[in-house]
Amino acid sequence: NAGVTQTPKFRILKIGQSMTLQCAQDMNHNYMYWYRQDPGMGLKLIYYSVGAGITDKGEVPNGYNVSRSTTEDFPLRLELAAPSQTSVYFCASSETSYGYTFGSGTRLTVV
Amino acid sequence: AQKITQTQPGMFVQEKEAVTLDCTYDTSDPSYGLFWYKQPSSGEMIFLIYQGSYDQQNATEGRYSLNFQKARKSANLVISASQLGDSAMYFCAMREGNDYKLSFGAGTTVTVRA
């Protein structure tokens, strides 16, 4: 049982480059989330999805886009990377109101 | 307004002693859930304990217990018999009503001394 799988684990981007952070879950969870964690801080919600084809903005959506074409996958797209997007990104999924599964995170550095 | 407040940025505790991590929350929804997560230096988020707003008893999971004081809107985590492996960042989080999104506090770093 893989749970929530995030790729890549580490990435260095140059300012202005684009990339997609991948997130896949094999638990058939309807709810999926993207969070970012800046150094020494808590997690902030970027985007979330309540099911395939449905996404919505979280607290800090600027500079990001998401799509949810299948239940399993919830990729996060950075279009024009900026140094302010240097962070650790966590994908998570849930099916109940108390059972959340987090991925291991993607550490992104924008230089 | 902050939904979750953790006022202790860092704490030191002696091995085998208990430590209490503070968490206060703000919500007007009568139905909510409170969570504690551990984040060791390796970075993963580890679920520790959950308390629902309608739960009559304080949640316990092994050495972890949640001191839930509804009227004060506090959900403090108590770690008993601290171990060196408990050294980590600890986050309090909340879910409100039918909204499954989690709001996190800023975290508390715990360092266990031998």
Please characterize this protein's 3D structure.
- The complex is a heterodimer of chains A (111) and B (114).
- By secondary structure, chain A is an all-beta fold.
- In chain A, the strands form two sheets. In chain A, strands 2, 4, 5, 6, 9, 10 and 11 form a seven-stranded mixed beta sheet that branches. In chain A, strands 1-3-8-7 form a four-stranded antiparallel beta sheet, with no helix packed on it.
- In chain A, strand 9 and strand 10 form a beta hairpin.
- Chain A is globular.
- Chain B is mainly β and 114 residues long.
- Chain B is 0% helix and 51% strand.
- In chain B, the strands form three sheets. In chain B, strands 2, 5, 6, 10, 11 and 12 form a six-stranded mixed beta sheet that branches.
- In chain B, a hairpin with a 6-residue loop joins strand 5 and strand 6.
- Chain B is globular, with a radius of gyration of 14 Å.
- The mean pLDDT of chain B is 96.
- Chains A and B meet through strand 4, strand 5 and strand 9 of A and strand 6, strand 10 and strand 11 of B.
How would you summarize this macromolecular structure in one to three sentences?
The complex is a heterodimer of chains A (111) and B (114). By secondary structure, chain A is mainly beta.
- State the end-to-end CA separation of chain B: 39 Å
Looking at the chains present, what oligomeric state does this protein adopt? heterodimer
Largest interface: A-B, 23 and 21 residues
Percent range of helical residues of chain A: under 10%
Number of strands of chain B: 12
Low-confidence stretches of chain B: none
Q: Give the C-alpha Rg of chain B.
A: 14 Å
Shape descriptor of chain A reads: globular
Mean pLDDT of chain B: 96
Category by helix and strand content of chain B = mainly beta
Task: Give the helix tally of chain B.
Answer: 0
The helix content of chain B is under 10%
Helices and strands of chain B, in order, run as: EEEEEEEEEEEE
The coarse silhouette of chain B is globular
Strand content of chain A: over 45%
Low-confidence stretches of chain A: none
Helix/strand-derived category of chain A reads mainly beta
Structure summary, number of beta strands of chain A = 11
- Mean pLDDT over the full residue set of chain A: 95
> What is the makeup of the main sheet of chain A?
7 strands, mixed
What composes the largest sheet of chain B? 6 strands, mixed
